[in-house]
Design goal:
This protein has about 170 residues and is mainly α. The protein has five helices and two strands. The two termini are about 35 Å apart.
Length: about 170
């Protein structure tokens, strides 16, 4: 992988993120009108914003901008969120707006989950670039190639979520 191509891929990822940020601002402006329907759209979009960032970076980093990279980004972030939330508090749901204890104080988790979406998008894109053409044995050939990428990304996301929940957050 050449450095120029990686820079171009990151630029494509950032353009996707810029479009989603513009949509977030549009929905925020709509929520200021006082219409409860527009406020609901804004709140829903705000909650899935880290997932969209993960998908955008996975597609942007993937060498051919394939839908399999997008699926890997979505699966990776969702598995990360499930493993993270179960290990933090088994009774709590995975909510982006839930407070998280970081640096000894309770902060809103939106920025934290946006950063996690960015990390999972980068990991998913790199996993796609590494495993998109993997050959499996004949009896597992259906799961080879691009179908293998979401599977291996979910396993890696499970470990990343448990690492952050058990090692990183208690030491912040």
């Amino acid at each position: 992988m050449k450095k120029e191509s990686l820079v171009n891929r990151l630029a494509i990822s950032l353009s996707y993120v810029a479009v989603t940020a513009i949509l977030l601002v549009i929905f925020w402006a709509g929520s200021l009108t006082g219409n409860s329907g527009l406020e609901g759209v804004f709140n829903a979009y705000k909650m899935i914003f880290p997932l969209i960032i993960s998908i955008a970076f996975a597609v942007g980093i993937g060498f051919d901008h394939s839908g399999a990279a997008a699926l890997a980004g979505a699966v990776g972030y969702l598995v990360f969120g499930a493993s993270f939330s179960v290990l933090i508090d088994a009774k709590a749901q995975f909510l982006v707006n839930a407070p998280i204890s970081i640096f000894g104080g309770e902060v809103k988790g939106q920025i934290f989950f946006i950063i996690c979406g960015l990390v999972m998008g980068l990991v998913s894109g790199m996993m796609y670039n590494k495993f998109y053409n993997i050959k499996m044995p004949e009896w597992l050939a259906f799961f080879g190639g691009r179908r293998f990428v979401p599977i291996i990304t979910s396993v890696v996301a499970l470990f990343i979520g448990s690492f952050i929940a058990n090692i990183v957050l208690p030491h912040l």
